[in-house]
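Dear colleague,

Thank you for sharing your sequence with our group. We've completed the structure prediction you requested, and as agreed, I am returning the results in plain text so they can be pasted directly into your records. Please verify that the sequence below matches your submission; if there's any discrepancy, let me know and we will rerun it promptly.
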Amino acid sequence: MSQPAFEIVNSILDIWKIAVQAIMFLVLWAAAFRGKKSKRDGIVAVLFILANIGIGFLPCTAWVRYGVSALAIMGYAGICYKKQIGKAVFVMLAFYNLHCLSFLIANSIYMKIMSVMMKSLDAVQESYL
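Please find the predicted structure tokens below.
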């Protein structure tokens, strides 16, 4: 497989992670803002998920997607929930905190597995090469 084909397949497979992150954020949002949901809120949620997936296809780093999402969240909260902007900031920061925590947990599991695997390798054995 060529490098461009690999990058296309990899970006397509990364879409599920972006969709899960967007849905997880929307669950946090729904828990914080328990008021009556309107049709507009559902449309905005679907647009939020689709925008995150669309930005995921662009050749940019992940922080660009996070920045655009943060601006969209603050804009929506400023328009629809003027008196509860602090709650929107808290939900957004809680989501990014959970996201960073999950990365750290996954990274520590990976490092532990790699250290165990590297200890079992013996460079002196003939079968090493």
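Summary note from our side: The radius of gyration is 20 Å.

Kind regards,
the structure core
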